[in-house]
Specification:
Blueprint: H1 2-10, H2 12-15, E1 19-23, E2 26-29, H3 30-52, H4 60-86, H5 88-93, E3 102-103, E4 109-110, H6 118-136, H7 140-147, H8 152-165, E5 179-180, E6 189-190, H9 193-212, H10 221-237, H11 256-286
Antiparallel strand pairs: 1-2, 3-4, 5-6
Helix pairs in contact: 3-4, 3-8, 4-6, 8-9, 9-10, 10-11
């Protein structure tokens, strides 16, 4: 029975079809639907918070428009982040392919837009949030603390979308938990790192931050804890994830993602200490 389970488990990716609906040339993929689920889930969790928790002055209309701005930020930032962090030499020679779903090498060929960077998307969201907050006179830290505990759960669905697509698979392993990914360069079992990320980046970080959201009173601290928790989890999962083929390991045995996560954690720690010192100084002054 155990052997039968592992055989079934190891061949799951080979049985998955990334296309949800196909009508003529139109294709709706599970990956795109997972993004919609992630955005929708974040929106409803944030709306729940402003309805049932104190300390936030945003209206539902503001949350709706702010979420839209964040979605634009994550898409633009994610795409530009991939271009600059992961494949700048190629896109420097093919700039039209940054936002157009065509390859112009050897003729015009439809390829779709592929390649998004989490860290680029994070930067895009931060920029969009700061611009929205400045225009509407809402403190960036208030917005960040409102959204930070809600965002990670959406990653679960995004990583499941990666899994269904058969992309971002892990390194070769002899452990029975490994799976056969048809798009992998070799027919060997690999860690299903997308599922590791779905659980730890998504469910684990969400449960941690959701638990802490009413227990941490320093404004801005939830953003710092988000950066630290996600960055730490992602850093260790990268040891199981196959590095990008065109980059490999960029520093010793560390991937580009690990270096970016390391910077993310350091920034989170620094931001937390900065906000804590401001909170203490404000308390001492008021006292």
């Amino acid at each position: 029975m155990t052997n039968e389970f592992w055989r079934w488990w190891q061949h799951i990716p080979e049985r998955l079809d990334p296309v949800m609906i196909e009508i003529g040339v139109f294709k709706l993929q599970y990956y795109g639907m997972m993004y919609l689920v992630a955005f929708g889930l974040t929106y409803f969790l944030v709306r729940y918070r402003i309805r049932h928790e104190k300390g936030f002055n945003l209206t539902e209309a503001q949350v709706e428009s702010l979420t839209t701005a964040m979605i634009i930020g994550v898409i633009l930032g994610g795409r530009l982040g991939y271009v600059f962090f992961y494949n700048l030499p190629y896109y420097a020679q093919h700039p039209l392919e940054i936002f157009l779903p065509f390859s112009f090498e050897g003729g015009i060929r439809f390829t779709g837009i592929s390649g998004m960077s989490y860290h680029g998307g994070l930067i895009g969201v931060i920029v969009a949030t700061m611009l929205y907050g400045r225009r509407n006179r809402i403190a960036f830290t208030e917005i960040a603390d409102l959204y930070a505990p809600a965002v990670p759960l959406g990653y679960t669905f995004g990583r499941i979308g990666n899994f269904i697509n058969g992309e971002l698979y892990g390194r070769v392993t002899e452990l029975p938990v490994g799976m056969y990914f048809p798009s992998a360069p070799t027919p060997e079992r690999r860690h299903p790192s997308q599922l590791y990320e779905a659980f730890f980046e998504g469910i684990f970080c969400f449960m941690l931050l959701w638990f802490l959201r009413r227990r941490v009173r320093t404004r801005g601290a939830m953003l710092a804890l988000y950066l630290i928790s996600y960055g730490t989890v992602r850093f260790f999962i990268e040891f199981f994830r196959e590095p990008d083929a065109h980059l490999g390991f960029v520093l010793f045995r560390f991937s580009t993602g690990q270096l970016l996560c390391g910077l993310m954690v350091l920034f989170g720690i620094g931001f937390y200490l900065f906000r804590r010192s401001m909170f203490k100084n404000a308390s001492n002054f008021s006292g």
